[in-house]
């Protein structure tokens, strides 16, 4: 591997770790397009390799959230059952889906993520205000969690921002606690999905050491590095980058 | 969950203090194995295997530590649910 590839991998790992630690999104959303567009990896390999870095990024974030007592572990374990099964099934489905469909579906999810980042506050307030209550809320969350897991297993992204509203349905946590609890669920989902992708030969081991080293650095240094920059600006920056990336992938 | 959220969020501090060093050591070991595999071509496959196995196993070590905390706190309902989740994960990982 040449020096430029090494630097790109460390940098993109650091960027994903940094955004992931700060916003609870960004792992696969950033890594998959780079592996696909810059390193010419087919989508299944880009997704499988990226998922391992997502495990690391969300694990480092979860460690910090757990230490601060922000994670609602009972809510995480309840919601994770369906998500894990969904992730397992979704990861197995990848070999049956044509690569073009994967690329278009991935781009659609990235565009949705960009939209959510741009309009996050208003949408979250609306979601909380209009939420149903009691048993119906929990039933909805448990029924939908396998789909969130399946999307994460199939596309390597989406688990995070689809689980967030589900967590808000079954718990009365504030947004910080929801993001923290969600990070732990995504760690578990990505772990199972990565194992399936690894067994299918979709994880490129030679890329992982620099990518994971960058992710660890970004996740550890992220909050300190971005201290003083308003979170809204970071969200808008990431949203713009993701929109450009999604359009580039659709163009291809 | 929702009716017990404040307690649930605040309670597992003893597990959280154990989780920090375990995750830090595990990740350091995984990255060291990855680095050795990256630098020494004869050990490339072994280094990558150790790296991936450790990274994929650590999230479940976190849950196992939490399981121990629930047992010490005698919170058997949470213990049972966490144990079942861990069992499901092990089945899925083995089936992968």
Topology:
The complex is a heterodimer of chains A (252) and B (96).
Chain A: H1 3-23, H2 27-37, H3 43-67, H4 73-93, H5 99-118, H6 120-129, H7 134-155, H8 159-170, H9 175-199, H10 208-225, H11 231-251
Chain B: H1 5-10, H2 13-39, H3 44-73, H4 76-95
Account of the 3D structure:
The complex is a heterodimer of chains A (252) and B (96). Chain A is an all-alpha fold and 252 residues long. Helices cover 82% and strands 0% of the residues of chain A. Chain A is built from eleven helices and no strands. Chain A has helices spanning 3-23, 27-37, 43-67, 73-93, 99-118, 120-129, 134-155, 159-170, 175-199, 208-225, 231-251. In chain A, helix 1 (3-23) crosses helix 3 (43-67) and helix 4 (73-93) packs antiparallel against helix 8 (159-170). The radius of gyration of chain A is 17 Å and the shape is globular. The two termini of chain A are 25 Å apart. The model of chain A is unreliable at 128-133 (pLDDT under 50). Chain B is mainly alpha-helical and 96 residues long. Chain B has helices spanning 5-10, 13-39, 44-73, 76-95. The longest helix of chain B has 30 residues, at 44-73. The radius of gyration of chain B is 17 Å and the shape is elongated. Classes of the chains: A mainly alpha (252), B mainly alpha (96). At the A-B interface, helix 3, helix 4, helix 9 and helix 10 of A face helix 1, helix 2, helix 3 and helix 4 of B.
């Amino acid at each position: 591997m040449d020096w430029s590839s090494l630097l790109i991998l460390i940098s993109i790992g650091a960027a994903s770790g940094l955004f992931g630690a700060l916003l609870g999104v960004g792992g696969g959303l950033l890594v998959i397009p780079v592996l696909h567009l810059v390193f010419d990896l087919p989508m299944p390999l880009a997704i499988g390799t990226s998922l391992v870095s997502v495990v690391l990024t969300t694990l480092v974030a979860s460690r910090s959230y757990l230490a601060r007592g922000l994670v609602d572990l009972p809510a995480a374990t309840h919601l994770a059952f369906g998500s894990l099964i969904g992730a397992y099934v979704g990861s197995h489905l990848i070999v049956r889906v044509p690569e073009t469909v994967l690329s278009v579906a991935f781009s659609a999810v990235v565009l949705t993520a960009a939209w959510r980042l741009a309009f996050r506050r208003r949408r979250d307030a609306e979601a909380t205000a209009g939420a149903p209550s009691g048993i119906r809320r929990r039933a909805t969350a448990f029924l939908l969690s396998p789909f969130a897991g399946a999307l994460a297993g199939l596309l390597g992204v989406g688990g995070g921002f689809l689980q967030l509203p589900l967590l808000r349905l079954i718990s009365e946590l504030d947004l910080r606690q929801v993001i923290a609890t969600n990070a732990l669920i995504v760690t578990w989902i990505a772990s199972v999905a990565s194992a399936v992708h690894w067994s299918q030969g979709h994880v490129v081991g030679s890329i992982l050491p620099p990518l994971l080293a960058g992710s660890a650095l970004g996740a550890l240094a992220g909050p300190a590095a971005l201290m003083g920059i308003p979170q809204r600006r970071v969200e808008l920056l990431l949203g713009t980058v993701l929109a450009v990336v999604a359009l580039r992938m659709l163009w291809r | 969950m929702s009716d017990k959220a404040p307690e649930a969020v605040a309670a597992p501090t003893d597990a959280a203090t154990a989780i920090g060093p375990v995750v830090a050591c595990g990740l350091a070991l995984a990255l060291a194995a990855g680095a050795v595999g990256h630098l020494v071509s004869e050990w490339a496959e072994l280094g990558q295997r150790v790296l991936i196995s450790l990274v994929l196993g650590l999230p479940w070590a976190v849950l196992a530590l939490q399981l121990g905390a629930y047992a010490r706190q005698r919170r058997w309902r949470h213990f049972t649910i966490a144990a079942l989740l861990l069992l499901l994960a092990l089945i899925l990982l083995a089936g992968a």
